[in-house]
Amino acid sequence: MNIVLWIVQVLLVIMYGIAGATKAFNTAKTRESINWTEGRTDNSVRFIGTAEMLGALGMILPMLTGILPWSTPLAGVGAVARPNPGDYNGAYPEERIQSPTNEYPVAGTGSVCRGW
After folding, report:
1. What's the rounded Cα separation, in Å, for the pair 41 and 57?
2. What pLDDT is attached to residue 16?
3. pLDDT at 100
């Protein structure tokens, strides 16, 4: 079970890290591909990306280093509880449709929270 949790954690770190890095470092590409960025400043999009990258690190580093390992499930709860900016914006109802690709990270993060 422990090996499965590590595999899921590494996959989630990669997924959240790539998503966050795209928002934080390539804002122009993010603006072209994601509708909720319209009407937001570049700094707010970068902030969301940075928060996703830090959350990804928070899901693996505490348990990996042994420093405050109880914070690993808390980082998972934070990743699941964070609102989708498209839902928060409310301007694009078509983005509120829950697709399976949105559910996989939530299920994976939930299993990490439950497993540790």
Report:
1. 25
2. 84
3. 47
Region for 90 from its dihedrals, namely left if φ exceeds 0, alpha if ψ lies in -120 to 50, beta otherwise: left
Rounded Cα distance, 99 and 54, in Å: 25
pLDDT, mean of residues 73-85: 70
Q: Could you please report the per-residue DSSP string of 33-72?
A: H-GGGTTS-HHHHHHHHHHHHHHHHHTTHHHHH-SSTTHH
Lowest model confidence (mean pLDDT) among 24-38, 43-57, 81-95, 102-116 = 81-95
**Domain count across the chain:** 1
Range of the domain at 57: 2-115
CB of 43 within 8 A of CB of 56?
no
